[in-house]
Amino acid sequence: MSALAIKDLGKSFGGLRVTAGVTLALEAGERRLIIGPNGAGKTTLFNLITGELKPDDGAIALFGRDITALPTRARPHLGLARTYQIITLFAQETLLHNVTLSLLGLSPLRWSPFRRLDRQAVLIERARAALASVGLEALAGRPLAQTSYGERRRVEIAMALVQQPKVLLLDEPFAGLSVDERKDVRRLLASIPRDVTMLMIEHDMDVALELADRITLMHFGQIVVEGSRAEVVAHPRTREVYFGS
Amino acid sequence: MIRAAAAAVALCALAAAPLWIPGGYYLNILSQILIYAIFALGLNLLVGYAGLVSLGHAGLFGVACYAVAWLVAAGAGQLVAALGALAVLLATTAAFAVLSLRSAGIGFLMITLAIGQILWGMAYRWIDLTGGDNGINLAARPQPFGISLAFATPFYYFTLIVFLVALASVAVFIASPLGASLKGTRDQPRRMSALGYNVWLIRFLAFLFSGLWSGVAGLLFCYYNQFVSPNVLSLGSSAEALLMVISGGSGTLLGPIAGAALVVVMKNVASAYIERWNFLLGAIFVAIVLFMPEGLVPGSARLGRRLWLRLRGVPAAGGAR
Description:
Oligomer: heterodimer
Structural class of chain B: mainly alpha
Number of domains of chain B: 1
Largest interface: A-B, 37 and 24 residues
Number of helices of chain A: 8
Shape of chain A: globular
Helix content of chain A: 25-40%
Radius of gyration of chain B: 20 Å
Distance between the termini of chain B: 28 Å
Number of strands of chain A: 10
Strand content of chain A: 15-25%
CATH architecture of the largest domain in chain A: 3-Layer(aba) Sandwich
Shape of chain B: globular
Helix content of chain B: over 70%
Order of helices and strands of chain B: HHHHHHHEHHHHEHHHH
Structural class of chain A: alpha/beta
CATH topology of the largest domain in chain A: Rossmann fold
Radius of gyration of chain A: 18 Å
């Protein structure tokens, strides 16, 4: 059974077909890299997988369960987590609060109107440990607005990992990072346990190719090439997409 | 420590108000401030903590007002009338929320405005039920545990107790996981959904809680005036409540209370001395927007901190927003 199976997925915005007949299967523990030029439909595919966009046709299954019609909010409870290309965090809150909110999203405690959140020791310790795992424990009490871009990227990843996902979607995790920050994030991603299935969009091939087991090339909303690193790099369609015919 | 001491002083001052406030008139003004503070606290749950600006909350305030006056006029006892009014209020709030939460931002504001106007229109034109322009009289104030609320002092203490319960409940809610979730839906609704939160349901529950306190304030207002008319549900009343929240500081616990005090004092006290008191109130709001755009309470705190740092000779970091 595939961890994530996508079949004939299609999406149009008016007359513009942004995803067409996308079929993709990720085995449990696999690390898949999605590449393609801007406008290829990579982030749209992520939005379809997480339910932020409704597909016009096709189906999405998570560990054999059809989640195509499930609302976005239900999918994290089934083990699906993502990070965003454009960082969407809670700028006025501390790093610790950001990660705690992520944990709280999967906890029945989120419905409690009576208990004090800052006294939920178990939750807060787990959030602190997640921040420590991305090297940000010392900044736990700092408002997010006072952190660097690279630190925010790591908070994004911590928020996704703290939910202990089975399938993790990473949308350009290296975007906008300095060389040193890229090294840190690469080390961090490499340390994610192998039982987590990863689907990653990334433009930085040097960094991303090292992390991926297989690569999928998208162009104009369709999958053009799929295979191992060597197969995709050597494929004539890859050269055509990136360098022209 | 300082906050706890300030809260204790404020509580003592409020508890001893009948001793230091001269006469029933000013004590009644204080009761009015507390009533509008409860209303503003309820509205602030939506405006400040959910990021949903409602221009129809006077409708909920008025529904509770009308319901209790109508039930008492129909022969129900005061307790039954109060509970019945709360039931009507919650049903109305739920319908109000289901309709208005179909949208956010300007769409939400326009839907709440429209529903508020519908409720005002019903109060004004459904004469058989509401008495139209003539309104409904409330024969007498309730007598909880046999204590008459007919005079200013007992009514003030009754209002104070309800106010403290409202304040405590809002404070507990905001510090709770559900309160944190609500603030999250204000800042990043899309992200909250992707984290597993049901954004709509969180907002719906906040709307119910907000409506509850708005309606409780309406009940107290009806007891206070012993009369209700369509003016209570008017757009002007909704806008006034919104001004209380924004001028005091939306998204803060004490801001709506300060805003309510400002508006009630201007309406009742300044109007006795200044004919163009509306002009003065407008000028004060403009001054708040210019010098404390975050509202009176957070703005005063910011200026206080700067002054304190200046007195200690520490250079201030950053200026006003």
